[in-house]
Amino acid sequence: MKRLAIVVPCYNEEEIFERTAERLNDLITDLIQKHKISSDSYILFVDDGSTDRTWDLMKDAYVSNPHIDALGLARNAGQQNALMAGLAAVEKKCDMAVSIDADLQDDIEVMEEMIDKFYQGADVVYGVRNDRSTDTLFKRSSARLFYWLMKRLGTKTVSNHADYRLMSAEVLHQLMRYGERNIFVRGIVPMMGFRSDVVYYARKRRTAGKSKYSLARMISTAFEAITSFSIKPVSLIMLTGTLIALCSFAALLALTVCAACGKNISEGKFILTSVWLLGGMQLAAIGLVGEYVGRTHFEAKQRPRYRIKQVLSHDLMSSKDRCRNGSSEF
Ligand code: UDP
Ligand code: MG
Q1: Does the pTM exceed 0.90?
Q2: Ligand 1 pocket: which residues have CB below 6 Å?
Q3: CB of 155 within 8 A of CB of 163?
Q4: Can you name the residues that pair with 124 across neighbouring β-strands?
Q5: Tens digit of pLDDT for each residue in 302-319?
Q6: How deeply is 265 buried, as exposed, middle or buried, from its count of CB atoms within 10 A (0-12, 13-18, 19+)?
């Protein structure tokens, strides 16, 4: 029997936390009874610097339930970093890990199917939403545009798959080798080339609490994902620049021929076309190159992705003691 860890990043999820913990605990108990997973399987909640009662609720859940562990980040590090923190914590303490959002919009019932596929040899099992009718029209169309763009830019993202996936311990181990700060897990996992499978489900509505992704945050996540995985925008700029240069060269040639034929063409026309053309091209190119240089700059800084403030683990006596002593920072 293999050991399962369910990793759940949570940010200000007090309204939904208890219900989620209860449902995931029921699921784990059921899977243990069915002999699908070992009896020491567990759930790890990661508090991503919540400002509400989420951490307090996690602590209560940890105290009352041996299947629940909790990890608290010192500040809001973002969903991807919280997820990485959780996966890093379970890496050596499980045979497989499933990551899932705290709002359980993703159907937990298909987790059993994921585990079956793991036993059949898959190292990664993606949860794919084949029915997003509960999402708003805007969310659906922006998601479609995003996946289309990611594919066109040559990345291997799985369409309609977010962060609901099963990964074997080996995948986790490899994932930890990616030291980049701006990490987009769902772009990296398919890139690693592990044997994978897919399970389908209908996406549900959020039953309580609010989505943490505003329009601005969605755009910045998409922008980050694109720029950290593809250099094609630079090639596109170069292509556009070349086309503009060719066109303007043709226009200048035409102007010269006209002038040679005796037509009266002012010097200003020649100068203005060239200046506007070159200025625009340079500005766009510099802006984009700057974007990449900026990213290199942050990578070079090698800032820690997160700082773990507290660990509540039924496995690690030392960290438990640290918590009891109130000196849980390290
Ligand atoms: N989340 C997080 N840190 C953040 C934002 C979100 O850990 O800074 C968690 C959040 O608690 C939830 C998951 O990421 O478990 C997905 O967030 P949400 O449901 O708001 O996204 P949506 O489903 O609207 O895309
Ligand atoms: Mg959600």
Answers
A1: no
A2: 9-11, 13, 48, 76, 78-79, 82, 101-103, 105, 211-213
A3: no
A4: 167, 196
A5: 655 766 778 989 875 554
A6: middle
